[in-house]
């Protein structure tokens, strides 16, 4: 029997995966990205009704300011549609529409608003329930001051200077770290002023303002500066705040994962790592809802994934006489193997040497294509552009297991 016939078909894998996850995305044939997230509240709209909000955001889902708006839309359960803007080639209609030419921007019931803070406040004014600002007038005023301070207190600029532009001189670097820690101390003190884990008495726009940046810093700093936010005893309240965010479903829909954040920093800013990547979250990698979501995404978007691997991973060099038929079959098989392992997750699909290794009877070229495809795909996927952060973690962990088991 051909090894290609020992796995389930793509349609079977897709059906099984969808039985274990409600995650779905809209396909965008011939466009980038190839799929778009679906608002979790879209089902609340009557049939043939346009969502009240149109969000303009970056194609790669890297922008922390876009993430703020998406987070608020999900928390407030506002149905919305997404229009992606290629930041490297912004369309003229967008630069004509938005004076800053930046993302995010949003049309709220037809009215254009730009700048993430202004969009958040406009959403709160138009859709006051559920509230993301406190009802108590005094606490409301404090929250609004903290929202403004998140933009003006210099924390973000100093943090990214420490991360991206840190001087080589040891004394200068120590001075910059001390200044950054002083800003973190200010956040720690702000979190201490109200009971509970948030900046004010309840989860609010203040938490949304800080969430994308602190998330990125928590992922990047250990790898690129050897500095840890999470688990740092100097900042117990910031760590309690991270724990509280982690309990919010909307946060998991919009957040990125550590590997995406670290790859972005290296690719976009040219920062070189000085430490090993953070380990994958073992709990997320084993959760069936995340494994099934990853399998669903891969199965439903397989044509795009296969075409991307063949075009950009380097497997073309393996093709004999320019015939990509065998290469494509090998890529297809290995991706089906990955989807199958994600769904079943018990190691049974990893018979020793079945797709590679010195004792294998499998064509070594076939196995080499699989290794290249897996390695490429591991660092190609982007959360949450392609799937949620939890699913991306499960996806990468499964690839690691496959590579370690058979190559």
Automatic annotation (TrEMBL):
Segments for region (Disordered): 21-45
Biased composition (Polar residues): 31-42
Matches recorded under PROSITE patterns: GLUTAREDOXIN_2 (PS51354), GST_CTER (PS50405), GST_NTER (PS50404)
CDD domains: GST_N_family
Domain GST N-terminal as annotated: residue spans: 53-131
Domain GST C-terminal: 136-271
Protein name per Swiss-Prot or TrEMBL: Glutathione S-transferase N-terminal domain-containing protein
Source organism (scientific name): Nostoc parmelioides FACHB-3921
Taxonomic lineage from the root: Bacteria, Bacillati, Cyanobacteriota, Cyanophyceae, Nostocales
